[in-house]
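=== Per-residue structure ===
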Amino acid sequence: MPLSPSSLPLMPPTPSSLLGSFSQPSVSLFPRVISSQKLSASHHRLLKLLVGRAGGLIASFSRYGHSSVCQALEESSDGELEATLVEGMPKSDAFFLLNLMEERGVRADCSTYASLLDDCLSSGSLAGAKRIHGKILKLGFDRESHLCNRLIDAYLAAGEFSDAVRMFDDMAHRTVASWNSMIMGLSRRKEHHNVLALFARMMRECRDPNPVAFANALRACNGNNRYWPFVQQIHAKIIRYGFGCDFLVGNPLIDLYAKNGYVDLARLVFEELYSKDNVSWVAMVSGFSQNGLGEEALHLYSQMHRSGIIPTPYVLSSVLSACTKTDNFEHGKQIHAQVIKQGFSSETFVGNALVTLYSRCGSLRRAEEIFSDMPHHDGVTYNTLISGHAQNGNSENAIEIFKEMQLSGFKPDSVTIASLLTACASIGDIRKGKQLHSYVFKSGLSSEYIIEGSLLDLYVKCAAIETAHEFFNTTDRENVVLWNVMLVAYGQMGNLGKSFDLFYEMQVEGVQPNQFTYPSILRTCTYVGALDLGEQIHTLTIKTGFELNVYVSSVLIDMYSKCGQLKSARAILERITEKDVVSWTAMIAGYAQHELYVEALRTFEEMQIHGIQPDNIGLASAISACAGIKAIEQGLQIHAQACISGYSTDISVGNALINLYAKCGRIEEAYSAFETVEVKDEISWNGLISGFAQSGHCEEALKVFVQMDRAGVKSNSFTFGSVVSASANMADIKQGKQIHARIIKTGYDSEIEVNNALVSLYAKCGSIEDAKMGFFGMSERNEVSWNAMITGCSQHGCGREALKLFEKMKQEDLKPNYVTFIGVLAACSHVGLVNEGLDYFYSMSEEHGIVPRPEHYACVVDILGRAGQLDHAREFIEEMPVVPDSMVWRTLLSACTVHKNIHTGELAAQHLLELEPHDSATYVLLSNLYAVAGKWNHRDQVRQMMKDRGVKKEPGRSWIEVKNEVHAFFVGDRLHPLADMIYEFLKDLNKRAVEIGYRQDRYYLLHDIEQEQKNPTAYIHSEKLAVAFGLLTLSDEVPLRVFKNLRVCNDCHIWMKYVSRISGRTIILRDAYRFHHFEGGSCSCADYW
């Protein structure tokens, strides 16, 4: 409704009424020492009208008893009159002059009333404003916009909002100032919705809005996400009207964009400003800091400093926060020095930022010193220090400060209690946590979101999951954060059922999942390997628009990667428009975990091409990929990059470097990387042990295991798996059994990884029966378990048994991998199943999606070569989609030697000599080929070639364990204490073997693996000495288990068949290629190896 004139006095008030309302002017109000500059503009305007009418003034003042004033006026000249009145008249008596003026018949103009309204506005006189309103209506000045605007301002200042609205509605012509006044009035009343509605109306009715109007509208949008669409519309109009470079609208725009996470837009607005004031810099620096872009905040502050702008306390406070968030404590200390220099230490909010900085960097003593030096504390100060102690695990100190806070008269708020609950949760002190819970309940803070979240987090971290769920049921179940906490809790327990029940319940109750809900449930799916359920959640993220959210997409990539669906993971990565370091790292880690090391390194390089610098996890994953393919040069480059990036001492990077150097056989570098890690954990020790074991430095691995034990670091399943593997690679059954006994003692014998290693140990040490016993005694088996058993059976010549195991493995829905098929193809080769072997090979890619590796191609060549299909084998090699490696050509050369095929053998040897010109095995095989074919000149040329090229053969060595002691023998060895007895026994064995048909194989003796001597010294090969010693010392019922570092020669192979027949003993020989089981005059390899 418009204002009603009837509610205001129609007749001008008399001087008496004015004196009743205000105070009567007295002589004491007219001291001449008061300067005229202290009087208002309204007094001056009135006096100018009244000057020259001294007679009338004297009469008026005389009527009301002001004789002294009359006397002053009478004594004053006309020139002094105005000065006299100006000096003496208080502002509140402006109305007195106005009444006197009207009494004398002098008419006031609009400017006079404007000045009077300004007085009312500054003094907050609602009554005065209403009186002037009445006079304005009477005189017809209500169409003057500037008077109406002042009336609106006066009503708003006095809190009479309804009068201001009526005034605004009744205006005939509204100016920009009218609209701005009303908008500001609504803003002060926090009626943001009405502000925006009025602004929209203004844009329709007012053609010339100014920056102030836009700034007020933008401030109304601050703090409420509902109004976000209006921000973009207002910004568009700002640009349209050409105000985009004005800091009046730029500053609130920067603040809005930054607070809502649109930092790039905030930066764009900031850079477009023609001139920037302190508010502009504060808004932009704070925006960077609040959005986790601490480095950008610090860079902008440096730019501000170079521009010569003196920072305000607010800027320094924001910069200190940026230093805290980026852990840039050195820079923070420099800012602290600047704070002291500029005298801002007494500012409470600056002190709070300093306390936070030093608390975060662990300098709690310095934080407490700053706290003590602060002249004033507030609740934030105490909260900051309490939070600092809580984050550093000092719960007792945090509680003491809490008590001090209460004694100082500050009431703890939700932030205080949340920090204390965090302290209790960090040390698992559920007792104190429950006491705080009681305090929260009594103080009425229990419904605060931050308190509910902290209490729930306390019970979850203290493993009180039932209590947590009970408390959760009493909370505000519309708070999605609490649902997320419970989902994480059940996820960490691996309780997929509870997680999904909770997720379903959440949807039934209408609580919308957010970008943190989906990662919680997806991580649970990943943890338990529930890919099908994870795919359903993925579908839901697509429907709700969260699939490409940076948090959700990264967890999806991680889930698909860990579940082996790398194509799906890569597809998600490709769809993300703004990939961050977490997304890239998840993909790199996924490739590395599935041994796709080349892809991992390619993705690592691709990430950097896109301008994303790797973090510690990305660097560690890339280094692990280098270790996987033993790319030592690339690993060295990434190591240098880690040093430059400041991650050289990071434990994850350090552990990856340890593993890289150990696997690549760089023992000194591995130990150096190990020493660089400041706090060595189990992963550090295990990385060194497993790396040495996998690189063939098994003795070094066992040495580190002993050092780890002495250092008091507890071994875990991974440790035992690594040292058992090291023992297996050394064929050290004695060491392996000792470790097995310790495994049982420490309770790790139920761990599947440890049992897998034990199966491999016994299989590699020739005890296939013990391996089978361990395998079938396992309560749970995975792919590695089956692979170990299948490979073991294949190596021991039990090919058909290996194939049966493979079929059982598939029946148990276990997915075979590339290792499985190496064992399967080797089994087919040993049994002579050519067609079946080829079928298995082609099924790898067609049925199982496995890309064959060089090892698989070598197995197929071995299958064809064993069957005598050498031309087929050569054609198979020529048609390989990858370049054949030395393993493939060596397999073909071995087959050619057995089948005396010189032409194909020479072709294979030629490729081998190009690939590995210094490998003695190639020369030996080629020499043997010429020897069996009777090509003596060619054999001599090969021998001469070896000498010319400086190629030396590795000396043969064989060993056997007797009564828990390993006895090693070399060719012609006479150092053993029982050497004479061994040689006498050998002579008898040879004689008996000859009697039943044994004849030395002279072809291989001419140029065998260990020496270049002919008969009669051939019988002193190391494996013969080991067998003779075993027959002399081991009881009849114990099989002989002999190990040799090189391939057994043909003569020794024939000799052992005869010896097994003569002695009636089982001889198990493991050479560099396979196991040979000699029993009753025959060998498990069917004379092909």
Observations:
- Strands lie at 957-962, 965-970, 1040-1044, 1067-1070, 1075-1079, 1082-1083.
- Residues 958-1083 form one domain.
